[in-house]
Amino acid sequence: MTEGKTEIRIVVADDHLVVREGLRFMLEEADEGxxxxxxAGDGATALDVVGRVQPDVVLMDLRMPKMxxxxxxxRMRTAWPHIAVLILTTYNEDDLxxxxxxxxxxxxxxxxxxxxxxxxxxxxxxRHEMVVQPEVMARILSHAAHGGSAALASSVSxxxxxxxxxxxxxxxxxxxxxGERNKEIARHLGVTERTVRxxxxxxxxxxxxxxxxxxxxxxIEDGLILPRTxxxxx
Length: 234
Known about the structure:
Blueprint: E1 8-13, H1 17-29, E2 34-40, H2 43-53, E3 57-61, H3 69-79, E4 84-89, H4 94-102, E5 107-110, H5 115-126, E6 131-132, H6 134-148, H7 152-163, H8 167-177, H9 182-189, H10 193-207, H11 212-221
Parallel strand pairs: 1-2, 1-3, 3-4, 4-5, 5-6
Helix pairs in contact: 2-3, 4-6, 4-11, 8-10, 8-11, 9-10
């Protein structure tokens, strides 16, 4: 490990041995401060391993025997909210992606991800930043716009009245959906990071959530933010 780097302790949960071994090889060979402290082939075992070793980041498959990834993430968020969970996913799981955000996942990794993006995403999750690859977020937004929510066409004004979000709060929420960090939100809105944090606190309270990922899930599912063209950060 390069001098000055902080260790990031990782658990991998996936029911395919080849995926677990492939990730183990990449993580152990990387000069990124990663330490693989455990792995599991199902959700129930993942909970046991995470409870024992207390990692910084968990890489979690969604479809596993005994207990699926969504239930495992939900229980981890309740028991150990300080542990960041990244979902391992494929392109055919749009509904599960949204549900994953709802239960508190920090982001998604496609299983054909390149090493540089994998390492960057793990580092971001360890800093408790929400990270969703641009192509994944684009699919989630497209899914919501084309039938993911039956009431999408009329839900924007309806949900806005229910939550009482201001125009500025909606701008901040849209920035969250685009994957922007507090510093980036502050810069393009022309406000301070302290102001952004205050807006986030109010948004969380109005939406009854406690994380960026859950706020994004509600923004997508309830139509608070309409899909737009343009780059999405990962």
